[in-house]
Amino acid sequence: MNDSIIDLVGNTPIVKSKRLVDKPGVDLYFKLEGQNPGGSVKDRAAYNMIKSALDRGDIDKNTKLIEATSGNTGIALAMIAGIFGLDIELVMPENSTIERVQTMRAYGAKVTLTDADVGIEGSRDYAEDKMKSGDYFMLNQFGNDDNWQAHYKTTGPEIWRDTDHRVTHFVSSMGTTGTIMGTSTYLKEMNKDIQIVGVQPSDDARIPGIRKWPKGYLPKIFNPEKVDRVLEVNEQEAIEMSRRLAEEEGIFAGMSSGGAAAAAVRLCNELDSGLVVSIVCDRGDRYLSSDLFKK
C-alpha cells in the first residue's frame, strides 16, 4: 500500500525486444518510463526539483512557479506541484499537442502558449522574462542539478539492478539532457566501460522531445564528456520506429522514444555482443491528435 501517488514514481519495468533485433549475442531492452504516474520519465526530475527546492527553503506554499516546457516536463511539474499545493504556470509552444495542454490544465496548472515560430526557445525567453519581475520562481530544468541528480539516484541504479549489472550500452534521446547526464554518471561509476549514446535530430528534423540546441540555449547541466557517442535520427526514422514499437513490440510511445529506439537498433546491428538499454520516455496517447500514428 502506497501513501501517495509520488510513491509510484520510478521503478519502471524493463522489457526485452522480441522482434526489432535478431542478432545472437546482442540484446535490446526498453525501459518503459510511460509507466510513471504522470506518463513519462519527467516525473522523476519534476519530483526531485520540487521536493529539493522545498527542502532547501528555496520555495514555499506561497511561491508562484513558472517553467518553459515542450510537454512532458510540464505535465510532471503540474502533477507534482498540485500534490504539494503549489501554483505553477507552464509555458509552451502553441503547436504542442492538445492532449498535453489539457493534461496540464487537468492537474491544475495555468498554461501559456507562445508562438510556434520561435519554438521552445521562445517559451524559455518568456518564462525568464516573467521570472525577472520578481514575482515568480523558475525551477529551470535546463540548468538545475536536481534534474540530472534524479536519474543518478533512480534511473541509473534501476538499470544496473534490473540488467544484473550486464548493461553494456545506454541509449537516450537528448532534450534537457537530465536523463542521460544522471544515468551516465551512475553507470560509469559502476562500470567505466559502459557506453553512453545520446540521440539528436539530424539537421532540420523536428522531433518533439529531442533537440540539437543552438549554442546560446544549450542546457547548462549538459557535460559532453559524459556522452561517448551521439547518433542522429531524422523525422521519418523516428516516426517509423514509433509505429514499429507499437505494432511489433506492443510498446505505445511517442516520437522521441521512436528516435531513441531507431538509434538503439542501429547500434545493435553494429555490435557483436552486448546488452543495450534504450529509454522509452513516454506514452503514445499523448500524440493521438498529431499525425504520428496516422496512415
Automatic annotation (TrEMBL):
Gene3D superfamilies: 3.40.50.1100. Keywords: Amino-acid biosynthesis, Cysteine biosynthesis, Pyridoxal phosphate, Transferase. Its EC number is 2.5.1.47. InterPro entries: Cys_synth (IPR005856), Cys_Synth/Cystath_Beta-Synth (IPR050214), CysM (IPR005858), P-phosphate_BS (IPR001216), TrpB-like_PALP (IPR001926), TrpB-like_PALP_sf (IPR036052). It catalyses: O-acetyl-L-serine + hydrogen sulfide = L-cysteine + acetate. PANTHER family: CYSTATHIONINE BETA-SYNTHASE. PROSITE patterns: CYS_SYNTHASE. Residues 7-282 form the Tryptophan synthase beta chain-like PALP domain. Pathway: Amino-acid biosynthesis; L-cysteine biosynthesis; L-cysteine from L-serine: step 2/2. The keyword Amino-acid biosynthesis applies. This is Cysteine synthase. It comes from the Bacteria. One of its GO terms (molecular function) is cysteine synthase activity. Its cofactor is pyridoxal 5'-phosphate. Belongs to the cysteine synthase/cystathionine beta-synthase family. NCBIfam families: cysKM, cysM, PRK11761.1.
